[in-house]
């Protein structure tokens, strides 16, 4: 029975897992759960994830939520130790980044996206520019940490080679970029170079996975230009 993967490609951790599944060739059955259509709020999906969130995997009836736990499970089960090293200290570096990012790059990038895209649509009110500025500042604090801590220490987020920490990181960073955030390569040169390395190493899946978010970015930038 193939692995079942419940996802929406507008979700950052879902994109990270999707790229990983494609890169590793682990066979899976796709179950798209459209967040915009509130498919995650149905009774049927609540039985799959009581928290009503994606991603989720189902492995012969074993349901697992939480992207980091899913990565760990799949890497162990399918012995993908290049993505999640077996050696304890190397593994601890990947765990360290995965734990750090929730309340830093993820929450700040996601709040930038929410303030700019989701809240105005839900409330039919204009973007709260003061809030947006606040989340942009916090996002840039997290980018500063990537630049001056994580990527100053090693060339990838979880060590000296690509691991699932990099997939989590780059997919989170693409969320504010999808919302029109202009990443400044002069200010964050290590982050820029790391992004290029991760993108190049994960093609064609990186671009395939980010097609919808990048179309969103193009539409937002066009709209911003027309209002100038
Ligand atoms: N900590 C969870 C977060 C999952 C999560 O927040 N998923 C979002 C999409 S990125 C979701 O399903 N949101 C729907 C909702 O909260 O209504 C993980 O890493 O898997």
From TrEMBL:
Start and end residues of each GST N-terminal domain: 1-82
InterPro entries on file: Glutathione-S-Trfase_C-like (IPR010987), Glutathione-S-Trfase_C_sf (IPR036282), Glutathione_S-Trfase (IPR040079), Glutathione_S-Trfase_N (IPR004045), GST_C (IPR004046), GST_C_Theta (IPR040077), GST_N_Theta (IPR040075), GST_Theta (IPR051369)
Gene Ontology molecular function: any one: glutathione transferase activity
This protein's record includes keyword Metal-binding: no
Highest rank taxon of the organism: Eukaryota
UniProt keyword annotation of Cytoplasm present: yes
Protein name: Uncharacterized protein
Entry's Gene Ontology BP terms: glutathione metabolic process
Residues covered by the GST C-terminal domain: 87-220
Family assignment from sequence similarity: Belongs to the GST superfamily. Theta family.
GO cellular component: cytoplasm
Alphabetical list of Pfam families matching this protein: GST_C (PF00043), GST_N (PF02798)
Lineage start: Eukaryota, Metazoa, Spiralia, Gnathifera, Rotifera
Cell compartments where the protein resides: Cytoplasm
Annotated catalysed reactions: RX + glutathione = an S-substituted glutathione + a halide anion + H(+)
Organism: Adineta ricciae (Rotifer)
UniProt keyword list: Cytoplasm, Transferase
């Amino acid at each position: 029975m193939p692995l079942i993967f419940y996802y929406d490609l507008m979700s950052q951790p879902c994109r990270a897992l999707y790229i990983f599944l494609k890169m590793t060739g682990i066979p899976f059955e796709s179950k798209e759960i459209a967040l915009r259509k509130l498919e995650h709020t149905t009774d049927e999906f609540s039985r799959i994830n009581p928290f009503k969130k994606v991603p989720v995997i189902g492995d012969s009836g074993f349901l697992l939520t939480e992207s980091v736990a899913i990565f760990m499970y799949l890497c162990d089960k399918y012995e993908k130790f290049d993505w999640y090293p077996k050696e304890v200290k190397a593994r601890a570096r990947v765990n360290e980044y995965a734990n750090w990012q929730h309340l830093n790059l993820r929450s700040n990038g996601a709040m930038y996206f929410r303030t700019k895209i989701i809240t105005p649509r839900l409330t039919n009110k204009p973007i709260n520019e003061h809030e947006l500025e606040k989340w942009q500042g916090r996002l840039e604090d997290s980018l500063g940490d990537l630049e001056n801590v994580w990527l100053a220490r090693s060339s990838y987020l979880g060590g000296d080679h690509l691991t699932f920490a990099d997939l989590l990181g780059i997919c989170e960073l693409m969320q504010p970029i999808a919302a029109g955030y202009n990443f400044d390569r002069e200010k964050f040169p290590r982050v820029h170079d790391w992004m290029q390395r991760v993108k190049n190493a994960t093609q064609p899946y990186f671009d395939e996975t980010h097609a919808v978010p990048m179309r969103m970015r193009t539409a937002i930038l066009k709209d911003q230009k027309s209002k100038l």
